[in-house]
Amino acid sequence: MLKGFFHVPNAVNEPVKSYAPNSPERAAVLAAYSEMWNSKIDVPLYIGNEEVRTGNTKTISAPHDHLHIVGTYHLAEKSHIENAITTALTARTNWAKMAWEQRAAIFLKAAELIAGPYRARINAATMVGQSKTVYQAEIDASCELIDFLRFNVQYMTQIYNEQPKSNSDMWNRVEYRPLEGFVYAITPFNFTAIAGNLPTSAALMGNVVVWKPAATQVYSANLLMQIFKEAGLPNGVINMVMGDSAMVTETLLNSRDFAGVHFTGSTGVFNDIWAKIGTNISKYKTYPRIVGETGGKDFIIAHPSANAKQVTTGIARGAFEYQGQKCSAASRVYIPQSLWPAVKEQLEADLKSMKMGSPEDMRNFITAVISEGSFDKLAGFIDQAKKDTDAEVIMGGNYDKSKGYFIEPTVILTTNPRYTTMETELFGPVVTIYVYEDAKWSETLELVDTTSEYALTGAVFSQDRYATEEATIALQNAAGNFYINDKPTGAVVGMQPFGGARGSGTNDKAGSMQNLLRWTSARTIKETFVTPTDYRYPFLGE
């Protein structure tokens, strides 16, 4: 397992294509979008070598046109989940002992398939099923997932190359074994890259996986499974199942062979999973690995020295790209009084220029939120802000779900720094701003740190280095990914390993060696070359 026997080049980040008018990539993705829009797919359960169609189905529709059906997917019963466990454990025998470079080749091939022949299709699938603009789809479904697959191979070789010291009479080595059992991967709707990375990062290290994608991401998840199979992933290594979440989770967590969960989703669901694991702990063959990235109430704080246009752009992009449905999206903003008039004027102009509609129309910056449930929740918070005396909707605030789940980019101004939308995760195109007195910079930093249970991302804008340093220290526990003079979104694999603590997860940093190490169980081997034949030590002599 030593890296030196094989040359694995250092991974490089996949370049982002522009999709400018008349570009070949624009034509290709629009053609793929049109094809997908005008056809219907039938998504099975993938268990071993079988595509299981149970006949119990749900429809897949586009959030920006929810009456338009683009496919159906099949729901598992408990017996299917139990079969997935058995199938995964059977596949583990050969997969766990496969040479690391053979596993690496599969996922490197998957990266190249996405970078080349599947690029337009995976982007189009993300546009259709998750209502991402082409640019958001490109940086997610193509570039980030390609980066995950390539960099994880690099990290794996670095891990395997990390070996203990030996001397002339003994050889010490560490074997990085896969976990003893199966890994349960639970992925969200908002990033196709996360849906691809959570099962593959565990599988790369020799583990077998039962993967449950979000119901609202099944369209692109189906294409991912087809790509993995074309790349040569053996049957049963990753098994994709859909169904009642409570039933699926209960069945998997009740198995003696449950060895870990790789999760991205809500804090409440993760807490429930953790509690169930604790209740079942005496059942398991080994202590499970619990890795989760959950919610966020991500902040931007501007110092009086900050550049107003930079702050405004950070808000506009950080809060409203992909309709604010990133766990890293800016959701609460703290602006000094002296800067507020300029920020407000520029933000109003920016929002007026934003177009909203189908991602097929590439003039649109905003499309639909993911579901009716999400729409109704966001509309409720907007309506409440219109009524409350300590809050005011100063920009946007309109919504319409007659065709798609469209909510205008909305800005709430509050006089209460602990107003509900300053504390509650919304997951939509709604940002709340609190204007503070310039002289209360230090007090406001403390406010930022103590307002939210989450600690995922945050950003400070400042041209004063002393203020920047003060913020960096004061907010060291408030964000696992901290940005200086930039929006709090857009972490790049290999550059900004991603994850937060507090209520935002276990901070195991997706896109790093730290995360991959969680899917190994190390065995130390000591081999002595000349073995002693007498128990007596020299100190025993007279």
UniProtKB/TrEMBL annotation:
InterPro entries: Ald_DH/histidinol_DH, Ald_DH_C, Ald_DH_CS_CYS, Ald_DH_N, Aldehyde_DH_dom, P5CDH/ALDH4A1, Proline_metab_enzyme. It catalyses: L-glutamate 5-semialdehyde + NAD(+) + H2O = L-glutamate + NADH + 2 H(+). Residues 62-524 form the Aldehyde dehydrogenase domain. GO terms for cellular component: cytoplasmic side of plasma membrane. GO terms for biological process: L-proline catabolic process to L-glutamate. The keyword NADP does not apply. It holds the Pfam family Aldedh. Keywords: NAD, Oxidoreductase, Proline metabolism. It comes from the Bacteria. It is an enzyme of class 1 (oxidoreductase). GO terms for molecular function: L-glutamate gamma-semialdehyde dehydrogenase activity; proline dehydrogenase activity. Its EC number is 1.2.1.88. NCBIfam families: D1pyr5carbox1. Belongs to the aldehyde dehydrogenase family. This is L-glutamate gamma-semialdehyde dehydrogenase.
